Amino acid sequence: VCQVAARAFGIPVSSCHVAESASDKVPNAQPTAASAGTDMYGMATLDACRQILKRCAAPIHTSICPFTPPPSLCTP
């Protein structure tokens, strides 16, 4: 999961942190087999990173280049 997030954001893996699961955060989490959990959580992480980047792109671009339209980040 850290590798997926680091690659999506273009940062070193050492800058990523994954919190341990806790029942007060995700109650009754279902156990998964290792590869199934990795696939599911890895893709969920990638989707979340893409959403974050998409939401941040326009404000960041506007502050850096106020007279040009922001680039489209609608690539899959």
How would you characterize this protein structure?
The protein is mainly alpha-helical. The chain contains two helices and no strands. Helix 1 packs parallel to helix 2. The mean pLDDT is 76.
Describe the structure in brief.
This protein has about 80 residues and is an all-alpha fold. It contains 2 helices and no strands. α1 runs parallel beside α2 (about 35-65).
Number of strands: 0
Assembly form of the protein: single chain
How many helices? The count is 2
Backbone CA Rg: 16 Å
Beta-strand content: under 5%
Q: Whole-Å distance between the termini?
A: 19 Å
Low-confidence regions: none
Q: Which geometry do the CA atoms define?
A: elongated
Report the helical percentage.
40-55%
Task: Please trace the helix and strand order, writing H or E for each element.
Answer: HH
Average pLDDT confidence is 76
- Main sheet? none
Category from helices, strands and their pairing: mainly alpha
Could you name the key traits of this structure?
0% strand; single chain; mainly alpha; 76 residues
Give the topology, please.
Layout: H1 2-9, H2 34-64
Helix pairs in contact: 1-2
